[in-house]
User: Which sequence fits this backbone?
């Protein structure tokens, strides 16, 4: 018989994996996931992400991100591809 703690742990793991998979459905969610993986959880929620309305021939769609700071340089990273 599976213990109650193990069922809760497995359920939480399934929910986390499902939420992580959802981030691949939208460019905005993908950028927020990247910010979160950069160990900036508050900025991943507060960052303002807008499309620049341009498609670069080499890089594709460009997005302007306000509120994401690079930890190594201290500069704001404004454009995501």
Assistant:
């Amino acid at each position: 018989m599976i213990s109650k703690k193990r069922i809760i742990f497995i359920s939480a793991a399934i929910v986390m994996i499902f939420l992580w998979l959802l981030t691949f459905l939208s460019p905005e969610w993908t950028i927020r996931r990247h910010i979160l993986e950069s160990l900036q959880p508050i900025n991943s929620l507060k960052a303002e992400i807008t499309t620049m309305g341009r498609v670069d021939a080499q890089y594709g769609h460009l997005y302007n991100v306000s509120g994401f700071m690079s930890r190594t340089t201290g500069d704001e990273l404004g454009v995501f591809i």
User: Anything to note?
Assistant: The mean pLDDT is 82. The chain has one domain: 4-80.
